Amino acid sequence: MGISKIKQLSRHIEEKANMKQDIYLNTLEAFNLLKKETSFVIKDIRNNMANRKRVIPLEFTDRGDFEFQLTFAGDVLLFYMHTNVFDLGMHHESSRTHYVRTDPERSFCGIIHIYNFLADSFKYKRMNDSGILIGRIFVNKEKHFFIEGKREMNQAGISFAGDKVSTAKMRNILRQAILCTVNFDLPSPRFEQVQEVNMYEFETVASERRMKTSKRLGFKFQAEDGKIL
Question: Which domain holds residue 208?
C-alpha cells in the first residue's frame, strides 16, 4: 500500500524544515567565526602600524546576535546575518555549476551582508546617510560558501564547490573587506550638483546634519536640473 498523501506532505515539511535549520545553524557558525576573528584582525592591524603616536580608531562593536560592526579610521563595516534561508534561483551563476546541479538543495543558502558606512554617519547620527553593500556571503547545508560583491571581495579566491566555512577563510574575508573599504574613497560631488542650495535646505537640512552622504551618492543638494542627489 502506498504512502498516504498526508504522510508524504508531513515528510516533505519535515525534510525541508530540517534542511533550512541546518543552513541557519551553518550560517550562524560562519557569522560567529567572523565576529570572533574580528578581534584578532584588529589586533594584527594595530600591532603592525608604524606610527604609534597617532591613534587610529580600531574598534569592534557587538550589536546583538546577528549584527556587529568594525570601525577603522573613517569607515565602518557592518556585518548583518539574515535569519531566513534563500534559494539562489535557476538564473544565478552558481546554480549552473556541476556542484549545484547534482544536488539542487545545495542552492539554498543563508546570507551574511557586509555594508560599508562612513564612521561620521554613526558619530554624528546622520540618519539620512547611506551605506554601500560591498559583499554577501552565501552558506549552504554542507557549510560550503561563496562571496559575491565588489572586485576586492571576489578576489578572496572562494569556490562554492571547493570551500567550506573555516576560521582561516573567515579571517581572509575580513581582510578583503577591510581592503575593499580602504580603497573605496568618498568622491567629491560635481560642482554643478552642489552650486545651488536654498535657505530652507541650508538652515534646516544642513544644520540638522541630514545632508545625505555616502561614498557613492555624495551630498544631498539641489542641482540646476532640479534633481535631488
Answer: 186-229
- CA 228 to chain CA centroid, nearest Å: 27
Sorted by sequence, the CB contacts under 8 Å of residue 59 that are 6+ apart come out as 42, 70, 71, 72
Q: Looking at the structure, do residues 177 and 195 belong to the same domain, yes or no? A: no
Could you give phi then psi for residue 20, rounded to 5 degrees? -65, -35
Q: Which of 102, 114, 105 is nearest to 170 (CA)?
A: 114
Number of helices followed by number of strands (H, E) in the chain: 7, 6
pTM: 0.81
Residue 166 shares a structural domain with residue 193: no
Strand partners, 107: none
| H or E element in which residue 199 lies | helix 199-200
Cell numbers describing residue 146? 561563496
Strands (E) across 7-98 are located at 58-62, 67-72, 75-87
Task: Give the pLDDT confidence of 42-100 residue by residue, as tens digits.
Answer: 988 888 887 767 778 889 999 999 999 999 988 999 999 999 999 999 889 999 999 99
Nearest-angstrom CA–CA distance, 196 and 75: 29
Domain count, the chain: 2
Asked if residue 207 and residue 147 are part of one domain, the reply reads: no
